[in-house]
Amino acid sequence: VTPRSGADAALPLETDRLLLEMWREADWTQLRPIATDPRVMRYITGGRPWSDDEIRDFVRRQTAAYAEHGCCRWKLVYKQSQEMIGFCGIGRWKGGAEQEIGWWLSHDYWGRGLATEAARAALDDAFRQAGFSRIVSIAYRENAASIAIMRKLGLHYEANFESDDVELVRYAIAIEEYVARPGPLTNRPRLRS
Ligand SMILES: CC(C)(COP(=O)(O)OP(=O)(O)OC[C@H]1O[C@@H](n2cnc3c(N)ncnc32)[C@H](O)[C@@H]1OP(=O)(O)O)[C@@H](O)C(=O)NCCC(=O)NCCS
Predict the structure, then answer these.
(1) pLDDT digits 0-9 by tens, 172-186
(2) Does the Cβ of 78 fall within 6 Å of ligand 1?
(3) Phi and psi (nearest 5°) for 119?
(4) How confident is the model over 75-95, as a mean pLDDT?
């Protein structure tokens, strides 16, 4: 895996059904219905909706991450309808050193394999383009759907731990494991606009 760099970094990623795009500041209003849905937030905040400030901060952090690494927790656009349906990608877990892959989808889009589809592209890009050597993924221990995605991506169980009184689980994958795992690597170039 040779990380790409330079001009390609500014281009969105594409899968069969999705575009993984950079955020614009105004996009935060499209994230609001998702980040205030208690079904989505169940295993994020225990169900508490994010405030407008939290949503705006999230979008700002993606701009900063993108400037630093050329990748972020990408905005997911459903190609067929051009609707923003959530996000997927890499961010620093709780602002620390670990690069974590995560995903949130609008409830209407659950159960169609979309998070896995997005995550495969985001993980591949994180290794190839951003050049990370290790990616973790962290979830509430009860979040079976999220843990199923981690396993499908080839992450291995690493540890159970507790943070802010919540029981969490951490999965991880190093670049050596990623290139060695069976099956073809996703190798979609970024879209040229
Ligand atoms: C987690 C989330 C992104 C999954 O999105 P999705 O597009 O439905 O996920 P996928 O269809 O790609 O894959 C989910 C997998 O989990 C499985 N799954 C779903 N619910 C499950 C459950 N309750 N128990 C066990 N497995 C479950 C699915 O069967 C699927 O696996 P499969 O392909 O082997 O059948 C979505 O539920 C969501 O946005 N949740 C709220 C936000 C969140 O919790 N994010 C993760 C924080 S760590």
Answers:
(1) 999 999 998 876 555
(2) no
(3) -70, -35
(4) 97
Atom 18 (ligand 1): residue with closest C-alpha? 145
| Mean residue pLDDT across the chain | 91
3-state secondary structure of 168: strand
Q: DSSP strand E in 25-107: where?
A: 73-78, 83-92, 99-105
Q: Which strand ranges, in their side-by-side order, compose the sheet holding 166-174?
A: 13-14, 18-21, 73-78, 83-92, 99-105, 134-140, 166-174, 156-163
CB 161 within 8 A of CB 138: no
d(CA 147, CA 140): 9
Identify the helix (H) or strand (E) that includes residue 67.
helix 52-69
User: Ligand 1: which of 105, 112, 167, 168 to mutate, judged by most atoms within 8 Å of the beta carbon?
Assistant: 105
Residue nearest to atom 19 of ligand 1 (CA): 145
Pocket probe for ligand 1: among 116, 136, 137, 170, the residue whose CB has the most ligand atoms within 8 Å is 116
